[in-house]
Amino acid sequence: MDALPPTGADGGCHGGRETLQAAARAAGKSVQMDRLMADYPRGPHDQPQSMCPAFGSLRVGLRMRRVATILSGSACCVYGLTFTSHFYGARRSVGYVPFNSETLVTGKLFEDIREAVLAIAKPDEIDAVVVINLCVPTASGVPLELLPKTVDGVRIIGIDVPGFGVPTHAEAKDVLAGAMLRTARNEAEAGPVARPRGEVPGLPTIAPIGELFPGDPPGLSALLAPMGLALAPQTPAREWRDLYGALDSVAVAALHPFYTASVREFRAAGRPVVGSGPVGVDGTAAWLDAIGRAANVPADAVATAKQRFLPVIADALSANPIRARVTVSGYEGSELLVARLLVEAGAEVPYVGTACPRTEWSDPDRDWLEARGVHVQYRASLEQDMAAMRDVKPDLALGTTPLVQAAKEAGIPALYFTNMVSARPLFGPAGAGSMAGIVAAQTRGAERFSRMVSFFNGVGTKEGAGYGWQTPPKDPPGFRDRMKRARELRAKAEEATGN
Hints:
The strands form three sheets. A five-stranded mixed β-sheet has the order 2-1-3-5-4, sandwiched between helices. A five-stranded parallel β-sheet has the order 12-11-10-13-14, sandwiched between helices. A four-stranded parallel β-sheet has the order 7-6-8-9, sandwiched between helices. Mean pLDDT is 87; it is low at 1-11. The protein has helices at residues 17-26, 30-39, 54-62, 75-87, 101-106, 108-120, 135-139, 169-190, 216-224, 240-247, 260-268, 280-294, 299-319, 335-344, 363-370, 382-392, 401-409, 417-421, 428-432, 434-443, 446-455, 479-497; strands at residues 67-72, 95-96, 128-133, 150-151, 154-160, 205-209, 230-231, 251-254, 273-274, 325-330, 348-354, 375-378, 396-399, 414-416. It contains 22 helices and 14 strands. 47% of the residues are buried. It starts with 16 loop residues before the first helix and ends with a helix. The protein is α/β, with parallel strands linked by helices.
């Protein structure tokens, strides 16, 4: 806390990653930075372009019942994060502890955070308070680990989520999910805890990891039922008691493969972890086998589940064939699973890019895709996704907002992966038929896109920008010369006065 925040032209939030990392370590955050670097390794080009990573942790907290969130960071960052959270439909307030250079350097900011936590920790209203350090407080060493662990029974979870330490908002979900699981695991090991709602008594459970489309948990439950298994609450959880239910599982399904901290807590609780997910015929068969081994399910029960569902999935895929070339890119963590489903449905998928890192839990998907000629790019940058799209010239591009915009400008049908693809069922029979409809609807519009590009050619660029021009605008005579002289005179005046 005695370290000054970064200053000068390269200071503050925009001080540069190396400068801020060095400041954080000098301020006593070496352990935290080492953990973030180990859990969320960078790619060869440093890290992908993304929204502020802290949004991921903020999102996890806001989606939980009886959980309050306090942000500690620059006002501009907090404004952007809270605006985004309300845009995504979080109907609750976000706490904010403002600061200035004096309170940051003297340690008063930490005392202000502590006072805010004590004021908000009301056991009749909330189960936990999450405090998130953004870039500047992390770089300045604000020690959230010194906050009380509980206040009147309300858990206090303090985490550092700096943009210079966490590459993507997807992985920031894991920062908070892992911290909550660690607290819940310690509580469960210390004595009796509350039962999760909706618990199926008497059945061993499988705990899924990943933010799932609402229709997927029932599909997963149906797949597990013939094996005598039930579905535990998912991680990230929707309320605190769900964490106990997840930890009480017999095995864990890392459906989204980047939750490194969460997996560490499950393994500390003695739970085996299975990668990939039940997509298509091949993926579902392999996943059921892996779950059966992890949960010690008899082979005949696994065979029963496969006999019941694999023919149904095969029929759904054959009834909804996809005859198109598709590129896939995004930052949700399910990109490889979506690509597998597309390939099994008959699509040609030459490229898959994900902003997330390569982990052991995505290896089954990577191996399966690469064996079928698909290029898999972890830590994909926007430039790599764009280059693949332009090189492949797909019938449909699934990707991020800027990629979709570039694709449509080029006359290529495109869909935003997060809202249009990951918001649909993915697993089991429901997932097998979910993609065909949107692919068919979008690729049918290719000819319309071509006509639109031709019709609007040049509009919005160069002299075609703006409204009201029938012909390229012309400068008044001598306008550029007058403006050039005015700039030169202004520069000389500033030099003379020292401004």
